[in-house]
Input
Amino acid sequence: MIYLLLVLGMGCRPLANQPNNTAAVPASSAINQVKDPEMDRFVNDLLAKMTLEEKIGQLNLLAVGFDVTGPVVSKNVDENIRQGKVGGVFNTFTPTAARKLQEFAVNNTRLKIPLLFGYDVIHGHRTIFPIPLGLSTSWDLTAIEKSARIAAEEASADGLNWVFSPMVDIARDARWGRIAEGSGEDPWFGAQVAKAMIKGYQGNDLTQNNTVLACLKHFALYGAAEAGRDYGTTDMSRQRMYNEYFLPYKAAVEAGVGSVMTSFNEVDGIPATGNKWLLTDVLRQQWGFNGLVVTDYTAINEMVAHGVGSEAEAGELALKAGTDMDMVGEVFIKHLGRSVKENKVTEAEINQACRRILEAKYKLGLFQDPYRYTNESRTAIIMQPEFLAAARDIARKSMVLLKNKNNALPLKQSGSIALIGPLANRQRDLIGNWSAAGDWKQAVSVEQGIRNVVGNKVKINYAQGANIADDEQMIKRLNAHGGNLDIDNRSSAAMIQEAVRVARSSDVIVAVVGESQGMSGEAASRSDISLPGQQLELLKALKKTGKPLVVVLMNGRPLALPWEEQNADAILETWFAGTQAGNAIADVLFGLYNPSGKLTTTFPQAVGQVPLFYNHKNTGRPFGGDLLDKYKSRYLDVTNEPLYPFGFGLSYTTFGYGKPQLSKTAIKAGESLEVTVAVKNTGNYDGEEVVQLYIQDLVGSVTRPVKELKNFRKISLKKGESQEVKFAITPDDLKFYNSALEYVLEPGDFKVFIGPNSRDVQEMRFSVQKN
Ligand code: BGC
Output
């Protein structure tokens, strides 16, 4: 076969090693530019053999199978593959299915170019981990990387070579459903998670049959949609882009991510998919990205509704902007041939896009062996016990204890529990949204998890108490997209009455309440972020019984929970914790695991405060706490404080912080300093603590946030044990993009904050002197 002859002599080669470049804008174009002459020769030879039609065919990505995330479904896929009109497919997996399509491409087309096989593997493939927001609240980068590694193992064994993850969009608006899919509100933290996930997916060698091409998404600013409404317009200053929203995308490029997905929204008034400044100047020239850019689902077609012109014109704009591959929309395949004839685009521009797709295939080793990812015997690794154990481990780590009055938790392994709530024995919701090839029927419910962990030692008295939702329209919509909500038709009063009866006859109430998985994720924004339906009424009735009330939450976004915070004895945030959710929740409830998660999104008191985030600017009139001081930046009816701040999370033990020490209080620009703090486990359980370091630049040529996370350490301390935690503060931690978008360190005074969350910190100062 031609492709095999062409690749003779080709060995496995590691992914390009990118230096850790954080240079100014415009940055060195050296990042990501490690040359591979063999690949260049191979791709040049292949391109020289291709007709214009064949090249355009490579730019076409079609959806095959079942998971549809937009209004359009690809048709005649088999035939189009046979005719060389397809570069890749997604939504199809299993080695048999993938092999069948790969054979169409390899055996029927003139140049035998293999296909890419993509899929939305977002938080696990078959073994499902907590939703990404939950993964992030573990603050355990090793465990996060491991979750991506396992996802890559399973996906690659299942016929796939490309995953549409990580999603690194900064999200500060709890109304936006896709806040569930990312790592929260902090740019620096988001960058660390992005790097860990890419390492997990891609490893060091993409040609291995257990590594997959990662896809950074959604480039860019998708999380800043106006009013938190999905697909909404974004509009922000370049200052904010460079200093805040761009950080995780840039870090992912530096970590060598192989592909980037454009976002649906506009950036600076131009849809991202057709935005040359974004896709070429920033992504490729400033950051040195040399991989493939794919659109989001039908994003080129949607440029027509954005108002940029006809479909053909949208295609021309997208290609010229730097988009290489058209997801589902078939605009390129329909119009680009004519656009070349009419001189609207050049063949050189098509060559460029085609080259990047061929390079991705080359890097994956597909020209060496198109069937590398279709080895049936590898499916034996799927959901192996070791993967399930890892899923249980990270699920436990992701849980955040928000309240624990009088040590209501952990529960005793005796007596009786009133297990109440619409999510108490659900399975569907536990694997969350975007659960890839996960089978919810294999998810462990809370009820089952409790039985697995404590057996018959505890008597469980169950009552549903309420439906997840009562709004019929909402239920219909959720069920139309796999919600599987079975609604109990009894009156709300009757359901609550039954639950109260059950509670009265038990020692303690465990109320498992929250959202259904479909209430977050794509196209799932909410204007009300309190508990849906009658669930709050249920909690109020349970409270009246006087029994200890433990609230276990499942949700894909920060919720507004003022009553719950006031009245519950304990609150445990569990997100949607994946295949092993019930076991992990039971481990935490009964103290087999001491919770260590910390929030990566601020929880507001009320939806009206949103967007609410800790790293805001100060304004000229910051509110100082005097209620009668009218002309301050605040609301009349609610304080500016969050219900729970960024970085917050309790443990069954307590931690004492000593007074932090700085190694110097004055340094020269370019020098580093150290901060040391002693942390002691002062409580009665062994536990883990996330020690957080924030910095504020007090004076800048552009205003700087009141606080920015710059480092953290998750440490494990036995009861009574102390540890000295040391952080280096480097020049990079002090830099920012000025109004000319130069990445600079401005001498002056800085504050350093150390603490267990972004609010309860101790502060110190140092200055950076002019050299
Ligand atoms: C989503 C992407 C996803 C794509 C493919 C889109 O609707 O925005 O995140 O990767 O569909 O399923």
